[in-house]
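Second opinion, please. Pick holes in both lines of this record:
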Amino acid sequence: MTGVGSAAARSASFSAYDGQQGCAHHFGGCGPLLLIAHAAGFCAGAYAPLAAELVDRFEVWGVDLRGHGDSPAPAGDFSWDGMARDVRTVVAGLGRGPAAFFGHSLGGGAGMRAEALAPGTFTSIYVYEPAVLPRIAGVGAAGSAMSAKVRQRRAVFSSRVEAVARLSARTPFDTMCADALDAFATYGLRDNADGTVGLKCAPTNEALVYEAANKITVEQVAGVSAPVLLGMGEREQGLPAAAAPLIMSALADARLVSYPGLGHLGPFESPSRVAVDVADHLGRRSNR
C-alpha cells in the first residue's frame, strides 16, 4: 500500500455528557484548530490525504463518531443528535474552541447540528453533501435501502492488501483515490486475534445509523449563523445532494460550490481539489 499522507500522530479520548466515550486523532499542523468529521461507515483517519493538504494552515484533528473508528458503539440507538454531541465533546475537550469545521455526509450534518445546539462552537463550516434531511417523500425509503445494502457488506478480510483489492472493486469504495482507500485500510480496519482484519464500523452498526429514528433535519440546522460553504458533487443525483437547495435557503450565511465529475465521496475522490475550497473558506474567518 502507498503512504497515507498526514498520518494521525496521536489520539485522545473524551467522554460526552451522556456517558458515551469517543476518540479523536491529531493530524498535526499549526494555526487555528480545524476539526474533521467523517461520513457514515468511515473514520477520521480515512481523511489523512485531505488533512495533509490542510496542516500548513491549521492544526487538524479528526473525530471518530460513536460506533466508528476507535470510538465504541453506543449502548442505545445511533441517534444523529448523539453524533452532534460527539463533535461538541471533542471541541470542548481540546479546549481550543471555537474551531473551524469540515464535515462529510453524516459528519457534516453532525457538525451543523452541533453549531445549532451550541452557537459559537465553530468560526466557519465547510460541509460536503451533509446528511441533513428534508421532510419530503422518499427519505425513509432511502434510509431503509442503504441499511439493507450495508448489512450485506463483507466485514472480515485475510489482510489489508486483500481488503483494498476487494473494496476498490465495489461501491462506494470504487470511486476513492488510492491514497484515501489506503488510509481507510490503515485506520478503518482492526487487527483480529486470528490474523485477519475487520471493519471497525461493523456493517450492522452502520445499518443502525441509517435506521436511527432521530435524524438531523433541515429545520434543526436552520439556526446556524456561522458562514457555511456547502460542497456538492455533480455526478450523482438524489439524497443528500438533492437537499442542498433547501439547506441553503434555511441558513443565514451560506454559499454553494459544485464539483463536476465528483460524487458523494468527493473528499475521497479528489482530496486536493476539495481542500483548496476548504482552506480558502475556513481560513477567511479563522485568520481574523
Remarks:
- The chain has a mean pLDDT of 92.
- The longest strand covers residues 21-28.
- The two ends are 40 Å apart (CA to CA).
- Residues 271-286 form the longest helix (16 residues).
